[in-house]
């Protein structure tokens, strides 16, 4: 059986195609992403802007065509933060159901966190001791504390990078007073994670894909090592390396970030806010170890659908 899975986020729609055979782990043979920026013009009257809506239609249509070209039998879609809040998101859901003949399910924040956990577990980087997982999204941030397969706690917060960008409209480069506004916003929305980390004795943060793989790539390219080819599943950061690249990003302009080796253009605009979010989590929760998982929601869906059900 060949399956296609698309994770419809606020900034990007990420997909994978896999062979799922009975009695063996699914094997991913193709993956990719479409830049949609659903929040680029804000959400006028609570709706996705028509230009962004068209980009979403185009992405879903292209995903469907790719699946047809690869003889994919089963297609699945998960839609997250922007779809949970936008009044016209149902147009995209109906388009998938009626025109493209596959389900696009709008999932809750806690369900999103659960699938992210499954993905990080499937990557093989999640230890058996209590660890905090962070997925930085465009619309929301998901946080999970887990030990191996066991989830202890999970939360979803509507302070993703696109929402913060729209709310704060930071200068270029960002100003110190704007950094303080970011920290206050994170304090207000995500403060409970501090007490949860204390309760479970967490000292280790694992970032789920996204901004974290860009940071890993930047660090390894700066070191001029071929190790960056091995980052796809996971990476353990040296904290000195992380602090150095963190400072470079926070003090840079958008154009300067575009020229940084390893910086993906689609990440450059919101990377300052992403790094500030990571720094806030590390500092407020007093965490001293930082790692990355190359797997997240879509891999978690694949793992749950085909691996967990056979156990």
Tell me what you see in this structure:
This protein is of the alpha/beta class and 311 residues long. It has two domains: 106 residues, ATPase, nucleotide binding domain (Nucleotidyltransferase, domain 5), CATH 3.30.420; 173 residues, Exopolyphosphatase. Domain 2 (Nucleotidyltransferase, domain 5, 2-Layer Sandwich), CATH 3.30.420.150. The chain contains 13 helices and eleven strands. A six-stranded mixed β-sheet has the order 8-7-6-9-11-10, with helices on both faces. Strand 2 and strand 3 form a beta hairpin. Helix 4 crosses helix 13, helix 6 crosses helix 12 and helix 8 packs across helix 9. It is globular.
Distance between the termini: 19 Å
CATH superfamily of the largest domain: Exopolyphosphatase. Domain 2
Strand content: 15-25%
Fill in the CATH topology of the largest domain: Nucleotidyltransferase, domain 5
What is the number of strand segments? 11
Taking Cα atoms only, what radius of gyration do you get, to the nearest Å? 19 Å
Strand order of the largest sheet: 8-7-6-9-11-10
Residue runs with pLDDT of under 50 for 5 or more positions: none
Q: How many structurally independent domains? A: 2
CATH class term of the largest domain: Alpha Beta
CATH structural architecture of the largest domain: 2-Layer Sandwich
- Principal-axis shape equals globular
Overall mean pLDDT stands at 93
